[in-house]
Design brief:
Elements lengths: L2 H11 L3 H10 L8 H15 L1 H8 L9 H6 L1
Helix pairs in contact: 2-3, 3-4
């Protein structure tokens, strides 16, 4: 794992679930090549915090980004 990735993942690990969801929602409209990587890191950490809620969100026929908060905070 690259040093920058390790630092980013550690920062996310120390962030609140609310902050992770805020960042998730902010990345929805960004158009830069790093966004998919960052969103992957966010999803990893959100899933770690609430695997049942995360899986329920993914199990939807067409999971919408804006619905993730509702599933993982339920």
């Amino acid at each position: 794992m690259k040093k920058l990735e390790m630092m980013a993942r550690e920062t996310l690990k120390n962030s609140s679930l609310e902050k992770l969801l805020d960042l998730w929602e902010l990345t929805d409209t960004l158009k830069c090549p790093q966004v998919p990587t960052v969103r992957g890191w966010l999803m990893d950490e959100i899933e770690r915090r609430n695997p049942d809620g995360f899986d329920a969100w993914l199990d939807q026929d067409a999971p919408e980004d804006q619905d993730l908060r509702r599933y993982v905070l339920a």
